[in-house]
Amino acid sequence: MALERAGSRARGATVYVNLEPCCHWGKTPPCTEALKEAGVRRVVAAVRDPNSLVAGRGLRELKRRGIRVDAGVLEREAAHLNRAFFKWIRTGIPYVTIKTAMTLDGKICTTTGASRWISGPAARRWVHELRARVDAVAVGANTALRDNPALTAHGAGRNPLRVVIDSRLSLKPSARLFNKEAPTILATTLPAARKAGFLRKKGVTLVACRAGKDGQGVNLKELLKTLGKMFISHLLVEGGGSLNASLVENRLVDEIFVIVAPKIFGGAGRSHGGGRRGGPLSPGSLEPAVGQSALRGLRSALARGAALMFTGIVRQIGSIESTHGHKLRLRTRGLKLRLGGSVAVNGVCLTVCGSRKNGRNELLEFDTSEETLSKTALGRLGKGDAVNIETPLTLSTPVGGHFVTGHVEGVGHVKKILRRTHSAEVWFSAPKPLLKYIAPKGSIAVDGVSLTVVDVKRNDFSVSLIPFTLRHTRLGRIKPGGAVNLETDLLAKYVESVNARPRP
User: Fold this and answer.
1) Closest CA to 391 of 345, 340, 330, 449
2) Under 8 Å CB-to-CB from 366, ≥6 apart: which residues?
3) Which residues contact 11 (CB under 8 A, 6 or more apart)?
4) pTM
5) Rounded-to-integer distance, Cα 150 and Cα 179, Å
6) Among 220, 234, 362, 364, which one is most buried in terms of CB atoms within 10 A?
7) Can you give the pLDDT at residue 133?
8) pLDDT digit string (tens) for 461-473?
C-alpha cells in the first residue's frame, strides 16, 4: 500500500521495514517482487522473518536483484513490535494479552456484580484502539451475561473477531456479541455444541472443545490451538476474573495490561486475578505463568493507567552513601532494580538513574529536583543516614498497609517519644493543610511507613510503633526534632474530592 501511494517517488528510494520482506506467494504476491518493480534502491529491515517460508530468503532475494540490504537495525525493538506474529509462527498458538480494570482496593466489580464503568473515558478509548490492533477479543460467559458487551473497536479502527467462551450455552441469541457488527466465534464443549444449531443460523462460528480440568469449562489449551489454526495470532482477553485466573494458572498468558482506577468499591466485590479457590495468585504462581513480557506489560499498564503505587510496607533499610548537589546515592542489598525503575525512599518516589555492584551491596543513584529537596526531608540527610526503601506494587504483590503514591505532601517533625513496655508512642507535628486528612484510626505514611493514627491534638498527631516496626524501619532511629516525610491517606482525599463535586 505504501509503495502504491508513493508511485514513481519510490524509484531510487530507501524503504524501512520492521520485518524482512516476504518472497513467497500467499494471499498477495511476494513483497520482494513489489520492491523490485518499484525501483527501490535500498531496504533497511529491522529483523528477519522466522517463518520457514522466508527466514532470510527475502533478504537474499533482494540482494540478488541488486537492491542494497541492511538488516538488524533496532532488532530488539522490532522483535517486540512483532511479538504476537513471532509467537504464532513458532508455536501455532496466539499471543495472549489480558486486559483488566480494577479499583484501588483491587476489585473488578461491586458486591452486586456491576463493573461498568470502573475506568474512565480515556482508558476506554485506549482499549478500543487496542482492540483494533489485535485479531480477536475474548470474554467468558459470566462477563458476557453481566455486561452484554459488543467488543468492537467503536470507530477506533477495524473490528476484531469476537470469541465468547460459554461451556453451557448460557447466552441468549439476543446478546450483542451475536449481532452483525463483527464475526463471532462461540467456544463451547462437545455436548453443548450439538445443541447450538440456532447460533449457526445467526452466522456464529462454533468451536467445540473438550472440557477443562475436573470436567469444568472449556479446555483452554485446545481452544488456543484451534484459534491459531484460524490464523488468529493475537488474542486479547477482557475477563472475567475466572477466565483470567485459568489462563494464568495454565501458563497461557504472554502480556497483562492493568488499568487502575482511583475508586474504592470495598465490601465483598470480586478481586482481580482470583485463583480457583478464590484467593490471590502468589508471586510464585504468577511470574513463571506469564513470563517477563507479561510483567513488562504490567509495568506499562500501570504507567499508562495510574501513578505507581506503594503500600507503606518497607522492604529494607538502606543507607545514604553520598549526596552531591542533586545526586543522591544509596547503599542497598538485593533490590535488583533496572535503570528507569522506581523506588520509594523514605516515602518519596524516585527514579533509578544509575546502578552498580559493590561487593554484596548495590549502589543506586538518583537525580533529585529542587522541589523534592525543598518539600521533603531528603535534602536534610547525610552520609550514613538510614532510609526506608519500598519497591512499587505489582500484580503479584500482597496488599498490606494502605495505598501510598510516593508523593510527599509535607514535612513533619518528631515532637516526643514515649517508651512503653511493648511499643513506643511517637508524636509528630504536621503542616496545617494536612491536618484535615489526619484522624484517629485513619492511615498515614511517615517516611514511607504505613501507620495508624492513634490521636490528634491541634497541630500534632500520634502513632504507636511496635517492636517489629522499630527494628525493621528507620523509625526506630528517629529522635525528637528530626524531620519526617508525610503523605496522608489517599482514601480521605478521594472522599473529599467526591464531596466537593456539584450535586446533580
Assistant:
1) 345
2) 327, 328, 329, 330, 345, 350, 351, 352, 353, 354
3) 38, 39, 40
4) 0.57
5) 8
6) 364
7) 94
8) 999 999 999 999 9
